[in-house]
């Protein structure tokens, strides 16, 4: 064995030893879980539902940090470039890991190579909300109104490339209508402008829609999943109403930077699965209309791969372009 080869093996052994020591001590301080959107949306809700329970399991606080901008790419890219020590995590959503890598010419990260998947949290459909001024009580009526007034209906999104953005674009494409996209830095600002009538349509995550609908601030037309939601059992699916085959379901998970030691990833995965198994978390998820999806890191990696493949094809097929 050459001297150079021995040196390389010694360095590798030292690096492995350092990782094992670090994993043994993990976590020794607070962990930051980055939500790449403003507070108030589905990604934010998923993070807050699991963070408290995971904190208890890990013995250290998980701090939620909302960093909106560029459809979630800025914060997601920042976490991808963070030290792979388990102290900087990110909520991986459909928008950031499945849509943005195709929608943006250079998102600044690769969803398959630049992250160590920790595990899935849940999946959730959206609900189509319209301002009460819109003359439509059903999806067919909304489509007919949009065809009669092409381009005059504005829809909000949580940012270019968000799952909400693509859900609306897929709907418009399949319905053969023209809608005008108005992007925001998160769901909270978008919902405020929907209530104010500055935009007419929003494909919302389920939790914030409950109160707004009951108070008459918005009208809910349909859900975007393959089946009706237990939160809105009276609402049909888009497929039932008008567009067979339409489906827009968002996936939420937790990811760490690539290179994070396997022992740390496994520890985080165990804490996440414990959180999802608790009655407390199940009740909270059910209250949002989400379906818990506990998984191994390997299963989440496979999900990221399949979702990116599906949504990248949709982005190309419907020709979505950023404003």
Describe the structure.
The structure is a single chain. The protein is α/β, with parallel strands linked by helices. Helices cover 47% and strands 19% of the residues. The protein contains twelve helices and ten strands. It has helices at 3-25, 42-58, 73-80, 94-103, 139-148, 163-175, 187-195, 206-214, 238-241, 262-277, 279-288, 297-318; strands spanning 31-35, 62-66, 88-93, 115-130, 154-157, 180-183, 201-205, 219-223, 249-257, 291-292. Strands 1, 2, 3, 4, 5, 6, 7, 8, 9 and 10 form a ten-stranded mixed sheet that branches. Helix 2 (42-58) packs across helix 10 and helix 6 crosses helix 12 (297-318).
Annotation keywords:
47% helix, 12 helices, alpha/beta, 10 strands, ten-stranded mixed sheet, 323 residues
From N to C, what is the helix and strand string? HEHEHEHEHEHEHEHEHEHHEH
Percent in strands: 15-25%
- Total strands: the figure is 10
- N→C terminal distance: 59 Å
Helix content: 40-55%
Biggest sheet, in brief?
10 strands, mixed
Can you count the helices? 12
Low-confidence stretches: 16-21
Structural class: alpha/beta
Overall outline: globular
Q: C-alpha Rg, in Å?
A: 21 Å
The overall average pLDDT, rounded, is: 91
Please describe the topology of this protein:
Elements: H1 3-25, E1 31-35, H2 42-58, E2 62-66, H3 73-80, E3 88-93, H4 94-103, E4 115-130, H5 139-148, E5 154-157, H6 163-175, E6 180-183, H7 187-195, E7 201-205, H8 206-214, E8 219-223, H9 238-241, E9 249-257, H10 262-277, H11 279-288, E10 291-292, H12 297-318
Parallel strand pairs: 1-2, 1-3, 5-6, 5-7
Antiparallel strand pairs: 3-9, 4-7, 4-8, 4-9, 4-10
Helix pairs in contact: 2-10, 2-11, 4-6, 4-12, 6-12
